[in-house]
Amino acid sequence: MATNAKTRKAARYAVPVAVAGVAAATVAMVPAFANSGSPDLPKVTAQQLIEKIAASDVQQLSGSAKISTDLGLPTLASGLLGGGGVTGGSANPGDKIAQLANGTHTVRVAADGPDRQKLTFVDGKDEYSLIHNGADVWGYDSKANEVWHEKDTEGAAQGKDRQGKDHKKTADRMGGAAPQQLAQDILTAAGPTTDVSVGDTAQVAGRDAYQLVLKPKHGGSTVGSVKIAVDAKNGVPLRVQLLAAEGGKPIVDAGFTKVDFAKPSADTFAFTAPKGAKVTEGAAEAGKGGAGHGKEFKGLESFPGLDALTGGADLAGGKGGETKVLGEGWSTIARIDTGGGKSLKDIENDKNAPKEAKQFLDSLGGKVTGKFGEGRVFKTRLVNALITDDGKVYVGAVTKDALVKAADANK
User: Domain check: are 278 and 326 in the same one?
Assistant: First the structure.
């Protein structure tokens, strides 16, 4: 499915409504969030529904959303995503974004065009707010009374045209992780390996909606389907669900519980640091190499101990690693030759091996063998990785069998 001008327009003007990761991104919803009936709507084709999404120019809204993620992570990974994976103060947005890769989160949202958004994460009596207002981005942790601040003067000057910049500031990431933008990214990525259809109608946050359904045409992917609930009147994506091929509750389910498309009041986006609050300047910390700013959960390379297995290679495709892309579409696998490091057997048998390396090995799944040799599989409900004994990594949103087959064919 080719990306047309309307799709690009919708991606450019998409209104941020919630931070989702996939991200990570990287959610089984409460009953109030589920379908409350199948409204009788005029029939539409998949192409007509895609065009409706692309034509939507809604830029103002407010409401509440729920984001839940069930990746089936091992204990080690789950602990890191629970808040220990990013440092630099409790008000740093990176920490909150990382936490969205695990559990269920309630978020109040407001947006008024590309330069004013507000997300408030609610956790009992405590709140964390992330506010983008023109040239300023603020993060505020009410429990710790800590404030994080970043100047976005370049983004404010360029407005929505800054989407093409290589370096994305916090304000850009707020937009890029929204359900609207998430839907656009999925539609853009859908190609000849995808079946696209219109599913049952639904009600989301009290709004009648169509459901666009995307499914892999071929086996081997961990993804069963992606469902995008689209507002029947204005074409705004109200919910995105990522369903596993193995069944069970959704891997990711992000969308509105309440939504109002009226213009929020201007004071919604106003913020002044409370008296006595600790204020950290994000850009200043980044310039000094300060802890935490700019860190994002990138996947396997963020786990302690993996560097001991790979000789310090950067699994994101940087230092030391040579990456080759195998397959296409939903079955794409990245083959990373780390170029060094001890074998898994060496780590297992070495009494002096780093504790973190042992913990990482314990978090992996069972051993696998094939023509490639031996290895271990790091398994989640979405992304799986095969780490071979000779220092190669095969990773993708595919099954264990697909990883072994790829390793055998590309040893």
Answer: no
Looking at the structure, tell me whether residues 74 and 174 fall in a common domain. Answer: yes
**Which range of residues forms the domain containing residue 332?**
300-409
Residue 294 lies in a domain: no
With cut-offs at 50, 70 and 90, classify the pLDDT of residue 201.
very high
272 and 130 both lie in a single domain? yes
pLDDT per residue as tens digits for the range 51-109: 898 888 899 999 999 999 998 876 544 444 444 434 446 678 877 777 777 889 999 99
Per-residue H/E/C for the chain: CCCCHHHHHHHHHCCCCCCCCCCCCCCCCCHHHCCCCCCCCCCCCHHHHHHHHHHCCCCEEEEEEEEEECCCCCHHHHHHHHHHCCCCCCCCHHHHHHHCCCEEEEEEEEEECCCEEEEEEEECCEEEEEEEECCEEEEEECCCCEEEEEECHHHHHHHHHHHHCCCCCHHHHHHHCCHHHHHHHHHHHCCCCEEEEECCCEEECCEEEEEEEEEECCCCECEEEEEEEEECCCCCEEEEEEEECCCCCCCEEEEEEEEECCCCCHHHHCCCCCCCCEEEEHHHHHHCCCCCCCCCCCCHHHCCCHHHHHCCCCCCCCCCCEEEEECCHHHCEEEEECCCCCCHHHHHHCCCCCHHHHHHHHHCCCEEEECCEEEEEECCCCCEEEEECCCEEEEECECHHHHHHHHHHCC
Domain check: are 268 and 356 in the same one? Answer: no
Q: Output 101 or 265, whichever has higher pLDDT.
A: 265
Please, what is the average pLDDT of the chain?
Answer: 74
- Reported as a pLDDT band with limits 50, 70 and 90, residue 307 is very low
